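Summary of Year 1 activities. Much of the first year was spent building the evaluation harness for sequence design. The harness presents a backbone, in tokenized form, and records the residue chosen at every position. We chose the following record to illustrate the format because it has been used consistently in internal testing since the harness was completed.
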């Protein structure tokens, strides 16, 4: 292709007057295009007018320089040249004549075209660049340099990428060639194994062919080897064909035609000789299967088995059979390995973890020791980072002696009336509440019973608390359970706030309470100590605001913080079995946030949280740190005081709960075996008559009450008689409890629960004793009376009197009768007597008759005469002494 362009024709030189008028470009250029086979054509080129740019320094009245479009076009051409990677041309330098003609103001002079020296149209046009053109050209130069740098970077990246791709392709090719080589080697090995198998099969076929064969076997061999020629023995003579018994013989014309008999399939000598086809042999399919088995056996013999070494998990104890299964080894091989090590064991024998580890190592496997308790690893997470901790409400436990006003004080703080609904006016459950103060701050309270039987509840409350409020009645002072509460608080290491209650009673002295507390190392602020003491009245609601301020002040000093953005964990405060809601557990969240739907494990019980209920009975979606809440959805009733943890799935929770259940069962069995003692101790107790026990089945409304009852009854045991708690649980009395009580001959105690109708009928039919209570000290009183009734009574001999025989009378029907004088005390009819002769007891028995004169009398006093006769004894003499006494029963005591 060639370009032919004619020079532009100009009618006259450009001037200012003509520059102002736009000049349309003349499209007179043409281009000749050449094609194949000598063809060509001429195409006209349309030239577009350049874009006109205004000069910033030009005045409005002044016309624009005509060189601006040309400058813009040149700038665009230079920019395009730079983008293509070419070097831009240096800008033209103005001539001295044009520089002299420039105005003094510094404005750009209009471009003028000077005629050449020779005159004509083809002269050079000189022009001066404006500031805008200079800026445009400089910007184009910078852009071109930047684009070139970007192009160079892209080129380098492309080169690096291609190098990486080439390297990956090379490695892939090498891997492919290696795999092809391995595949070829494997195919060669398989071909060699098949060749050996075929050789072995052929050898066995040759051996089978050399042996005498049946006709069916020969037919199968022909089918398997269709090209093989059938061998013919020239010396073998065909046997004579004798008629078979079952073949049809010609019959006379008038004979009766019988139906042909079915072949029985039996082979006799005649059939075996005459009919080769009737001889039984192996079928074709059986021969094919046999050959296939032979080929597979030969292949297995030629291919050595590759032993697999495994990671073997070794528990604390394992049987030999289980260990062999874990290693995928035969039991006989494991026993042989043990015999080489000097250990003689059977397949079902239990071995320890150390021996199992040696056996696993000996057989080439990799042992991995685990313990059964490893399922709990990671359950207690590490401490939270300090930046994740936020403030939480304080947990306050109210403790003190029974009937000192703990629940009433808590009711006054909560503006409720719980104490009025307590049986006997004493708290027998542990309760948890949360109070919101007018300032918006929250305090969680835990109310503990004050009765002496609820020691475990008080200890449990002190363990989970931050602050202990010690309630002391101003009229009673420090009592036994007050001392116990102080000991629990000190053992838990929590601060104490003393609340002196009942100050509204006349004649009380709060300073007496403070003085008594000094004996137990509790020094209040009024006496120069650090323990706060507040005088309150629960009934009059006096100084409750001061008590709340003291709690908040102590909480601020403790700086209580927790992380709410984690899996929840805490402690079970109380649990019960509700007839309508199932297992209900009152828990205190210590860390994290407990939500509905979480899977948790509490002790040996697990479940998914179906519902969360606060202390007001309202359903909530979640519970944060230091908040008491009731949870529903557990598969059982957890023990009070158990810790609960939220886990990731149900499988983990089920595994942990199963392990804890087995552990608790083993501990209970060990405890029961230890309490029974050895066999010698039991036999000794039976011989001495001291092996007495009272079996008891306890059913309570909540787990804490059942635990307190079991502890209180166990404390009643003595050396003479002991109480044995057969079972302790929560919920109504059921038929299962009656079955257990009937088997163990136990007494059933229902604490705030009743038996269902079916259980009541069963108890009435089987005469099982069920006793209901709602106050704990009545339970202990009745059980103590029952224990006393189990003891054998003791008997004491009481002396009545002496009588001296003065005369002996012989009576035919009555025998010998002694005429006596009462010398001391008195003699009663029916009493026990002894016959003393020379101060030696020669007979003990009872009186048959006691007469005074001829009348039967009940007793004879001192100084009177009487007649006495012994039961079945007549050897009495004058001068003997009769001693009369009686046996008194003494009531046993514990």
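For this record, the design step produced the sequence shown next.
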């Amino acid at each position: 292709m060639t370009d032919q362009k004619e020079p532009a024709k100009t009618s006259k030189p450009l001037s200012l007057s003509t520059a102002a008028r736009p000049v349309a470009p003349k499209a007179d250029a043409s281009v000749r295009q050449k094609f194949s086979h000598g063809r060509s054509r001429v195409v006209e080129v349309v030239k577009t007018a350049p874009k006109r740019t205004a000069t910033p320094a030009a005045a409005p009245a002044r016309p624009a320089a005509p060189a601006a479009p040309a400058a813009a076009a040149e700038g665009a051409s230079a920019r395009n040249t730079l983008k293509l990677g070419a070097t831009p041309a240096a800008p033209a330098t103005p001539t001295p004549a044009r520089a002299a003609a420039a105005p003094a103001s510094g404005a750009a002079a209009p471009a003028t075209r000077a005629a050449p020296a020779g005159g004509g149209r083809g002269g050079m046009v000189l022009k001066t660049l404006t500031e805008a053109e200079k800026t445009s050209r400089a910007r184009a130069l910078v852009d071109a340099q930047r684009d070139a740098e970007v192009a160079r970077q892209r080129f380098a990246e492309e080169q690096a990428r291609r190098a990486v791709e080439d390297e990956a392709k090379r490695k892939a090719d090498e891997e492919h060639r290696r795999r092809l080589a391995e595949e070829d080697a494997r195919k060669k090995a398989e071909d060699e194994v098949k060749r050996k198998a075929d050789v072995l099969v052929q050898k066995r076929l040759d051996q089978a062919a050399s042996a005498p064969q049946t006709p069916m076997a020969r037919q199968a061999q022909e089918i398997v080897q269709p090209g093989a020629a059938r061998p013919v023995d020239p010396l073998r003579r065909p046997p004579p064909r004798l008629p078979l018994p079952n073949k049809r013989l010609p019959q006379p014309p008038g004979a009766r035609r019988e139906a042909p008999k079915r072949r029985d399939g039996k082979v006799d000598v005649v059939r075996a000789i005459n009919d080769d086809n009737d001889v039984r042999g192996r079928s074709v399919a059986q021969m094919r299967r046999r050959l296939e088995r032979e080929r597979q056996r030969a292949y297995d013999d030629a291919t050595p088995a590759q032993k697999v070494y495994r990671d073997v998990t070794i528990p604390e104890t394992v049987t030999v059979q289980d260990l062999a299964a874990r290693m995928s080894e035969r039991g006989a091989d494991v026993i042989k390995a043990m015999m080489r090590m000097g250990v003689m064991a059977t397949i079902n024998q239990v071995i320890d973890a150390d021996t199992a580890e040696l056996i696993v190592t000996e057989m080439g496997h990799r042992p991995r020791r685990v313990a059964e308790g490893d399922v709990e690893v990671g359950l207690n997470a590490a401490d939270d980072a300090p930046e994740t901790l936020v403030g939480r409400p304080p947990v306050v436990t109210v403790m003190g002696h029974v009937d000192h006003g703990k629940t009433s004080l808590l009711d006054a703080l909560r503006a409720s009336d719980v104490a009025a609904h307590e049986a006997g006016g004493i708290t027998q459950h542990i309760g948890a509440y949360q109070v919101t103060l007018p300032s918006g701050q929250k305090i969680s309270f835990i109310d503990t019973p004050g009765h002496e039987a609820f020691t475990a509840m008080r200890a449990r409350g002190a363990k989970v608390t931050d602050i202990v409020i010690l309630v002391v009645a101003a009229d009673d002072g420090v009592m036994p359970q007050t001392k116990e509460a102080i000991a629990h608080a000190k053992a838990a290491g929590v601060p104490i706030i003393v609340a002196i209650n009942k100050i509204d009673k006349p004649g009380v002295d709060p300073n007496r309470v403070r003085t008594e507390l000094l004996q137990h190392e509790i020094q209040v602020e009024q006496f120069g100590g650090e323990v706060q003491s507040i005088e309150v009245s629960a009934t009059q609601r006096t100084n409750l605001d001061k008590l709340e301020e003291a709690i908040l002040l102590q909480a601020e000093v403790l700086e209580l913080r927790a992380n709410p953005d984690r899996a929840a964990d805490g402690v079970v405060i109380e649990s019960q079995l509700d007839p309508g809601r199932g297992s209900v557990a009152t828990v205190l969240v210590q860390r994290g946030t407990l939500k509905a739907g979480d899977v948790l494990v509490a002790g040996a019980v697990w479940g998914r949280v179906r519902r969360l209920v606060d202390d007001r009975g309202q359903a909530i979606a979640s519970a944060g740190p230091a908040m008491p809440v009731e949870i529903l959805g557990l598969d059982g009733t957890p023990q009070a005081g158990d810790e609960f943890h939220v886990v990731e799935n149900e499988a983990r929770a089920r595994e942990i709960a199963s392990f804890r259940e087995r552990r608790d069962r083993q501990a209970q069995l060990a405890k029961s075996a230890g309490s029974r003692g050895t066999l010698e101790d039991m036999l000794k107790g039976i011989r001495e008559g001291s092996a007495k026990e009272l079996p008891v089945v306890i059913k309570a409304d909540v787990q804490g009450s059942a635990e307190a009852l079991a502890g209180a009854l166990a404390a009643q045991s003595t050396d003479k008689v002991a109480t044995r708690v057969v079972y302790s649980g929560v919920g109504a009395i059921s038929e299962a409890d009656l079955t257990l009580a009937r088997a163990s001959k136990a007494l059933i105690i229902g604490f705030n629960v009743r038996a269902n109708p079916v259980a009541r009928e069963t108890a009435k039919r089987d005469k099982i004793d069920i006793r209901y209570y709602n106050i704990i000290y009545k339970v202990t009183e009745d059980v103590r009376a029952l224990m006393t009734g189990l003891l054998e009574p003791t008997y004491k001999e009481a002396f009545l009197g002496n009588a001296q025989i003065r005369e002996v009378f012989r009576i035919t029907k009555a025998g010998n009768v002694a005429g006596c004088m009462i010398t001391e005390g008195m003699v009663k009819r029916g009493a026990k007597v002894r016959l003393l002769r020379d101060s030696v007891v020669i007979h003990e028995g009872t009186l048959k008759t006691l007469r005074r004169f001829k009348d039967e009398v009940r007793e004879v006093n001192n100084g009177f005469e009487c007649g006495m006769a012994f039961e079945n004894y007549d050897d009495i003499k004058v001068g003997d002494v009769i001693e009369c006494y009686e046996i008194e029963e003494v009531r046993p005591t514990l």
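The radius of gyration is 59 Å. Quantitative recovery figures across the full test set are reported in Table 2.
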